[in-house]
UniProtKB/TrEMBL annotation:
Keyword NAD: yes
PROSITE patterns: MDH
Boundaries of every Lactate/malate dehydrogenase N-terminal domain copy: 94-236
Chemical reaction(s) catalysed: (S)-malate + NAD(+) = oxaloacetate + NADH + H(+)
Species of the source: Protea cynaroides
Any single GO CC term annotated in Swiss-Prot or TrEMBL for this entry: mitochondrion
Gene Ontology molecular function, alphabetical: L-malate dehydrogenase (NAD+) activity
Name of this chain's protein: malate dehydrogenase
Similarity annotation: Belongs to the LDH/MDH superfamily. MDH type 1 family.
Residue span(s) of domain Lactate/malate dehydrogenase C-terminal: 238-403
Enzyme class per UniProt: oxidoreductase
EC number(s) on file: 1.1.1.37
Annotated InterPro entries: Lactate/malate_DH_C, Lactate/malate_DH_N, Lactate_DH/Glyco_Ohase_4_C, Malate_DH_AS, Malate_DH_type1, NAD(P)-bd_dom_sf
CDD domains xref list: MDH_glyoxysomal_mitochondrial
Amino acid sequence: MAVTTASTFSIGLVAGTQACTDSKFKTLSMKFNSANYLKSFSGLKAATSVTCESVSSFLGKESTTALRDSFTQIAQKQNERTDNCVRPQASAFKVAILGAAGGIGQPLALLIKMSPLVSTLHLYDIANVKGVAADLSHCNTPAQVLDFTGNAELANSLKGVDVVVIPAGVPRKPGMTRDDLFNINANIVKNLVQAVADNCPEAFIHIISNPVNSTVPIAAEVLKQKGVYDPKKLFGVTTLDVVRANTFVAQKKSLKLIDVDVPVIGGHAGITILPLLSKAKPSVSFTDEEVEELTVRIQNAGTEVVEAKAGAGSATLSMAYAAARFVESSLRALDGDADVYECSFVQSDLTELPFFASRVKLGKKGVEALLSSDLQGLTEYEAKALEALKPELKESIEKGVAFAQKEPQSA
Ligand SMILES: NC(=O)c1ccc[n+]([C@@H]2O[C@H](COP(=O)([O-])OP(=O)(O)OC[C@H]3O[C@@H](n4cnc5c(N)ncnc54)[C@H](O)[C@@H]3O)[C@@H](O)[C@H]2O)c1
């Protein structure tokens, strides 16, 4: 598999970098069909269309067919363009990353730069992000990369943007909980979301900054104060919990990664992270000990990384990977794909809590439906864990709401 992937990729790179007038380019584009041609700039996902194994690593099985179809359609369009000697163009979505110079921001920017659905990538940070943008801009993928540094450039970084991803803030150090980050990150998220409300109120907003259980409610309050809150477009990114659950279950049960899909509900901190192992696909049986061990490992996986990094931060690479998957899913939904499902922490009526992570169906206007079926027929262990997480999640949500309401902003 590795040989196939590597050779396909290197051929694609040669093809994709040549100008239309270059005879080598013409020859290569004649040699390869449209789906192969797309591989020249879709990077990870391109390789993933070669074998099912690698597809699973980015999107999971359910997304695979739809993604492959959408790639093929895009590739066909692009092939038509190259036949007419026009350089390949991506779909016209603009993505902004706020906190783009950071541990998550940089690899996330790289992964988003590889998406065929992105035409423009805006990188914003209070730290100098020029170097990151210059570096990325040399990658021969179509997305144009622009840098924006400091508050004075924040508004421009958001103009016309379809998806805003927010990993700005401080990460945990050993011994810290996600809630310990509240005092710093709450203000950062509040200020950034105010700018989003002023400059791209229609955009999908992906909140990565912790504590997600509080920063999402903060963002909702800010958007309400600005009169532009659309609950369907505000997302707490919990994809990493799903990615981890899929990985750990596949390892434990010796399953192919492509096959594994575990919904994770609740929130994104400690016991509020509740993997529903009874709903795992494929259906596998676990002993009580395995359920306990896997659940606790998934809940503490972030801490595992924080401790291994010993003061140098929290999960960045796996987080970037997970966030890129969520961005890609959002872009596919915006592009009209009718078959996009992800777990996310969103405004919800599935429980008595106002925000709750569950699987959601994504569409052009954001959340189209919350999947209530995952909450039916829970095991006794899961039902108890669900009840146990509610007080902590409620407290975190209320803390966020209270913070945002304490100093309401002028519209
Ligand atoms: N949702 C998740 O699953 C998940 C997983 C891991 C980490 N996180 C969170 O993501 C956040 C970022 O983590 P990281 O490892 O990238 O941290 P980092 O310190 O490496 O990077 C953060 C970046 O944010 C920038 N920044 C700070 N204030 C800003 C502001 N007002 N405007 C714009 N940029 C600003 C910093 O300059 C820095 O470049 C943390 O809050 C962390 O807890 C979330």
